[in-house]
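Field notebook, page 135. I keep forgetting to write these up properly, so this time I am using the form the group agreed on. The chain and the ligand, protoporphyrin IX containing FE, are recorded exactly as supplied. Prediction of the bound pose follows.
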Amino acid sequence: MDFVTLVVVAVLAFVLVAVFIMRQKAEYGAQLQQLQPKKPKQFGIYTTEEVAKHNKPDDAWIIAQHKETKEYRVYDITEYVPEHPGGESILRNIGGDATEGFHGPQHPVTTFLLADEYCIGKLAEGEEVKFRSKR
Ligand code: HEM
């Protein structure tokens, strides 16, 4: 391959990657735009025992500790499972504490805005969270 061909291939590859990234961003932006509160939320206070009952892909709750407030929030992610860009990895700790994965480097800051949509409340004071669901 001569130098000119190499440059052309490199430029094409760059354009392809750039287009891909821009499309992903646009899609995600559109998703965020739809983030209007669908219905007034009623937040609840839950025990880990209650959360642990929701450990199936079609009934999936997780606990994740909020970085600033340190409170343990409960999320009902059932409707989000099929949309999760990280696929089924989101199911790894359903019914339990998913804090580590939730705050992983794969998640852009906007994830936490999106996640707010699925927050249904928090854990009761004094609940032990260092447990894994028994899936
Ligand atoms: C742009 C949006 C998102 C992207 C690109 C994304 C991507 C990913 C990827 C790649 C993983 C797998 C990490 C691994 O295998 O170690 C993951 C895990 C996870 N994601 Fe997302 N995600 C997104 C949004 C969300 C949202 C909105 C939520 C919550 C409603 C969420 C909750 C989780 C959880 C809880 C895990 C880890 C489960 C565990 O390890 O227990 N993600 N995500």
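OBSERVATIONS:
- The pocket of protoporphyrin IX containing FE is lined by residues 28, 62, 75, 77, 80, 84-86, 89-90, 92-93, 98, 101-102, 104, 106-108, 111, 114-115, 118 (CB under 6 Å).
- The first strand starts at residue 44 and ends at 46.
FOLLOW-UP: compare against the apo run.
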